[in-house]
Design a protein that fits this description.
By secondary structure, the protein is an alpha/beta fold. It has 18 helices and 14 strands. The strands form three sheets. Strands 3-2-1-4-5-6 form a six-stranded parallel beta sheet, sandwiched between helices. A six-stranded parallel beta sheet has the order 11-10-9-12-13-14. It is globular and about 75 Å long. The chain starts with a strand and ends in a 6-residue tail after the last strand. The model has no long low-confidence stretch (mean pLDDT about 95). The structure holds uridine-5'-diphosphate-glucuronic acid. Uridine-5'-diphosphate-glucuronic acid binds next to helix 9 and helix 11.
């Protein structure tokens, strides 16, 4: 099928690359000419495991092309995935102006039958507005539009694998024929009959993905409801961690046993310095706002957000308790991204902690495997180090803020030898408390005794 992707950010590039990898002809369009030129030259502008492999392979096979020409893209495609940004407005609601602008061009340029698929995260009832815009700005040429909501459930850091091996594919439609076309697009993934570029064709066994057909409104709601629920789960674990600290229990032991109950499940129960990234914080706010507009006060969401914001205060308080005064102390920071395996620092708790440390007069040395260049622009006074050992040199404390697995495997004895004071505050419970104390560290983590 001739498919186009409008918007070459995280979601758009992964969607385009994966659809090309399973055999479609894909055109990726972005209004940012520089981004398109980079992609045409074979440079993938974001770090995402396996994305470069699949995009470059598709490019060599001429299954994918890049352009800034929206009208031409619309003209030549049967299915159009809209993957433009929907960032938060000041009031927490989603900014849908990019979506609206694209809809108007699609309406004006389309001929024949077009499947218009919203992939961007949008508030419920956006599909209705999208259909209206397509009709109102549509040409007299008799173009026919089928609007579909097809939310993504991709996690940064594993989005290629998530796309190719999903638990479910949700399509919100108002006509059965649109669902049939979506099924055709996803057929290789649903039947698991493509050569997987992530696992060299030897994918771990998994259940066949569910193909879930709903109304457009339900599909839109499923996305916000899923992200918000996961955020609630994390805030629950974090509040539990506070209680464990007070009562001498270990949150890791508690959540591990809780997660063995299939009704609860083990995922998203990791306590720490809170959730960040471009999805959970904005989605929980947008969901709260849309509920409020509908006359429903979704206080659970507000509370989850409040608990999350308080994680930073709680962690800094721990640092103050251990270091007494932060001013003029040398603090080493390991990890700047909102989670490992990404270069994304948007709404990263780590960055907020760095900001507050600097504001209190600490001098900060930092290391992150992917995000140092980006962070340098925002915090030029931080000393960015070659490696974690350099961060530890002369430090009064080390703060572990992102659970990059390589931090677990460091030579902690060597680090101990380099610090002025062997104090480690582990904001992600990555390290083994017993081992750290055996090595002579004063070690504090989240919700664990000691
Ligand atoms: C999230 C969802 O997991 C995806 O399903 C969704 O498609 C995506 O948002 C989106 O809306 O586009 P992502 O933002 O990439 O994906 O990150 P997650 O892996 O969900 O982690 C979010 C945050 O929660 C991170 O800061 C992570 O450190 C934190 N987290 C996660 C915890 O603090 N504890 C946990 O147990 C799990």
């Amino acid at each position: 099928m001739r498919i186009s992707i409008i918007g070459c950010g995280y979601v758009g590039l992964v969607t385009g690359g994966c659809l090309a990898a399973i055999g479609h002809r894909v055109t990726c369009m972005d209004s940012d000419g520089e981004r398109i030129r980079a992609l045409m030259a074979g440079h993938i502008p974001i770090y995402e495991p396996h994305l470069d492999e699949i995009v470059l392979a598709a490019r060599s096979a001429e299954h994918i092309e890049f352009t800034s020409d929206l009208p031409k893209t619309v003209e030549q495609s049967e299915a159009i995935f809209i993957c433009v940004g929907t960032p938060p407005l000041e009031n927490g609601e989603a900014d849908l102006s990019a979506l609206d602008a694209v809809a108007r061009v699609i309406a004006a340029e389309a001929r024949g039958l077009k499947l218009v698929i919203e992939k961007s995260t949008v508030p419920v009832r956006t599909g209705e507005q999208l259909r209206r815009a397509l009709e109102v700005y549509g040409p007299a040429s008799g173009a026919v539009f089928q609007v579909v909501s097809n939310p993504e459930f991709l996690r940064e850091g594993s989005s290629v694998s998530d796309f190719l091996h999903p638990d479910r594919i949700v399509v919100g439609v108002d006509q059965p024929s649109a669902a049939a076309k979506m099924r055709e697009i996803y057929q290789p993934i649903l039947e698991r009959n493509f050569v997987c570029p992530v696992h060299d064709g030897a994918c771990p066994p998994a259940a066949q993905p569910q193909f879930v057909v709903t109304s457009i409104n339900s599909a839109e709601l499923i996305k916000h409801a899923s992200n918000s629920f996961l955020a609630l789960k994390i805030s629950y674990a974090n509040q539990l961690a506070d209680l464990c600290e007070e009562l001498g229990a270990d949150v890791e032991e508690v959540t591990r046993a809780m997660g063995m109950d299939p009704r609860i499940g083990p995922q998203f129960l990791r306590a720490g310095i809170g959730f960040g990234g471009f999805c959970f914080p904005k989605d929980i706010q947008a969901f709260y706002r849309l509920a409020e507009r509908a006359g429903v006060e979704f206080m659970l969401l507000k509370e989850a957000e409040r608990i999350n914001k308080a994680r930073i205060d709680h962690f800094l308080e721990k640092a103050r308790r251990a270091l007494w005064v932060l001013k003029s102390k040398q603090v080493g920071v390991l990890g700047l991204t909102f989670k490992p395996h990404t270069d994304d620092t948007r709404f990263a708790p780590a960055l907020e902690i760095v900001r507050r440390l600097l504001a209190e007069g600490a001098s900060v040395r930092a290391y992150d495997p992917q995000a140092m260049r980006k962070t340098q622009v925002v915090y030029p006074t931080v000393k960015y180090c070659e490696d974690p050992y350099d961060v530890a040199a002369g430090a009064d404390a080390l703060l572990l803020l992102t659970e990059w697995p390589e931090f677990r495997d460091l030579d902690w004895q060597r680090i101990h030898g380099q610090m002025v004071r062997p104090l480690v505050l582990d904001g992600r419970n990555l390290l083994d408390p017993h081992r750290m104390r055996q090595l002579g560290f004063e070690y504090h983590s989240i919700g664990r005794p000691g």
